[in-house]
Design a protein that fits this description.
Its main location: membrane. Keywords: Lipid metabolism, Membrane, NADP, Oxidoreductase, Transmembrane, Transmembrane helix. It is built from 9 helices and 9 strands. By secondary structure, it is an alpha/beta fold.
Length: 306
């Protein structure tokens, strides 16, 4: 009798699970054809790392144009202040410049405290800063590998430790992390970089899930991971493209616009261009040799720096 009862409970749970899965599939299809309205960022306080140039600078300018208070962090004080001055000239929003080495935990916490005192609580955090040395694996120095992980991975931990508690306290916030297409597929001459960007994906997925379960599904804090194709910021010095017209470098402004769209639409993950994520998922269903044949055909990546 007890076994029959337990079996009935398991069957009911399985049926409920199937119904939930079907519901969320239908919901996803609906949202694909009828996208939700983008949420406003006016009045939010957005902190972006690496705002001295490239994607970070474009993000700062665009968030300011949408009415957000923008807090700009960069290790290069001069270029960072140039970004803030550009924002101030538009008169669209308040902007603040802070010099910070995000790889240094003590420095992150010190500057974070200044931000809290001078600006207030950060409600949107964009971890954008990163470096990308391009060498064959055995040509990377020990210090270089450590530096890649300090900036591309450990900085994310320090920034989250500094700013996530206030988001949790208010149950309001959004964290955006810049990974890379190199974070969903390995690329020659970028072994440590790829590993660092895979780590960002794991960090974001696990912290999101931890917060969901610890709050019993009540957390309103959102997490978005971005996987850009090669962006024309100068970071990628020797891009290799067999079909440059079909796979051109992404302009920084275009990348920034898509990142902000993903954040405002509460996307959990987004590649730039957007078709790369489903293509990667489909491609990995095929045998390894067929995937390698496809990679050889596309012949896209980076050459080693001289």
């Amino acid at each position: 009798m007890v076994k029959a009862y337990n079996g009935a409970l398991i069957l009911a749970d399985v049926l409920l699970l199937i119904l939930k899965i079907l519901y969320y599939i239908c919901e996803s299809v609906y949202k694909f054809f009828v996208p939700a309205e983008e949420k406003s960022v006016a009045g939010e306080t957005v902190l972006i790392t690496g705002t001295g140039h490239g994607i970070g600078k474009e993000l700062a300018l665009r968030y300011a144009s949408l009415g957000a208070t923008v807090v700009c962090w960069d290790v290069n004080q001069e270029s960072n202040e140039e970004t803030v001055n550009e924002i101030k000239k538009t008169g669209t929003a308040a902007a603040y410049a802070y010099q910070c080495d995000v790889s240094n935990r003590e420095h992150v916490f010190s500057v974070a405290e200044r931000v809290k005192q001078e600006v207030g609580d950060v409600t949107i955090l964009v971890n954008n800063a990163g470096i990308m040395p391009c060498h064959a694996f055995l040509d990377h120095t020990t210090d270089e590998i450590r530096r890649i992980f300090d900036i591309n991975v450990m900085a994310h931990f320090w920034m989250l430790q500094a700013f996530l508690p206030s988001m949790i306290e208010k149950n309001h916030g959004h964290v955006v992390a810049l990974s890379s297409l190199a974070g969903i597929g390995g690329i020659p001459n970028l072994v440590p970089y790829c590993a660092s960007k895979f780590a960002v994906r794991g960090l974001m997925e696990s912290i999101s899930e931890e917060l969901r379960t610890s709050s019993k599904g009540k957390s309103l804090i959102k997490f978005t991971t971005i996987y850009p194709y090669m962006v024309d910021t100068g970071l990628c010095k020797k891009p290799k493209m067999k079909f440059p017209s079909a796979m051109p470098l992404v302009p920084p402004g275009q990348a920034a616009s898509q990142i902000i769209h993903a954040q405002r639409s509460n996307f959990r993950e987004k590649t730039i261009p957007s078709y790369w994520l489903p293509l990667n998922t489909i491609a990995r269903l095929f045998p390894d040799d067929s995937l390698r044949s496809l990679l050889d055909f596309c012949d896209s990546g980076v050459e080693a720096d001289s």
